[in-house]
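Many introductory courses stop at the sequence. We go one step further.
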Amino acid sequence: MAEQKTILIFGAMDVETEFLISSLGESNKTVIGGYPFYEGFIDRKKIVVCRTYTGMENSAAATAIGIMTFKPDFIISQGTAGGHNPKLHKKDIVIGRRLINISSFQTRRYGAGEGMHPENWSLKNWDLFEDSLQDPEVPALFSDEKLVNLALSSDYKEGQLHSGTISSSNNWNQELDRINLLVEKIGSDCEEMESFAATQIALRFKVPSITIRIISNSEQHPGEEYERTTAVSCQRFVLDFISRV
């Protein structure tokens, strides 16, 4: 008999986790450090769903707690994201092959009255990664390649399925010029507030991980305002993904 897999799945908001939790049927809830973890089974796999709450710090803490407590075989960080890439639209799904921390900048020195120059800001790794985990030009982390390829083989019918770069920070960017600068400089496809931190901690513990995000809104396209129900579409995609793992 094949060894039973344990899969740890994160979502920051209730709308990003409720559908998954309901899909577990009967589940066991454990609260650790204020983070709720729901244990259940789907397709004879042990599934642990955690609501991390928003932000990089919450995501890092919940990931560390989840790994040490439940010993997962791999981790899925999933939920909604704001679109950056003008080729992507609401309900498109981005498989985060590459994760970037867009709050980790170093600025050049300018004096008083010399203005701010975000075009000259450089992303820094701040000694976070000892191995060859980063792009030579842009400090980045990467999802597990096997999991990425499996996700990309899914049959998703609600929008495009795209592999690319997901930007994380404790910011909500609505300045289109700044968004376009991120697209131009680092190839950012979308932004959210958790996945870089989850990936960083997973790599520390040597646990494979993947980030799956659905575009819930985009400043690139007038009228594509935030839509909560996109989170359910993402969770359905995740359920299809884990059924094939």
